[in-house]
Amino acid sequence: MECKEVQKKIHSFLNDELDSKESLAFIEHIKSCPNCKEELSIEFLVITGLQRLDSAEAFDLQRELEDKIKNNQENALRRKKMSRIGFLFIIFIAVVAGYYVSMLFYT
Description:
Helix content is 83%, strand content 0%. It is mainly alpha-helical. It is elongated and about 75 Å long. It starts with a helix and ends with a helix.
């Protein structure tokens, strides 16, 4: 992913609107590009800071952003793994069904 594309997707990332593939590419870029990571940090701090301005509780927004990136990456990897497992299960079912259908026709 390139910087322009990442910067366009910052709001989608912050709102958990990216799919697994986009999310992983976004995070990979953020981890390797200090400029885009800074842009993400600024937008996260502004949006979240404004939402919590009236709250009296203390908060560490930079840590929360790091947690969000980590959790999003873990969730994207988990979804990717589950889709692979689902695909393998469908193949298995198709093979078993094919076997039973062939047994019906040849017996």
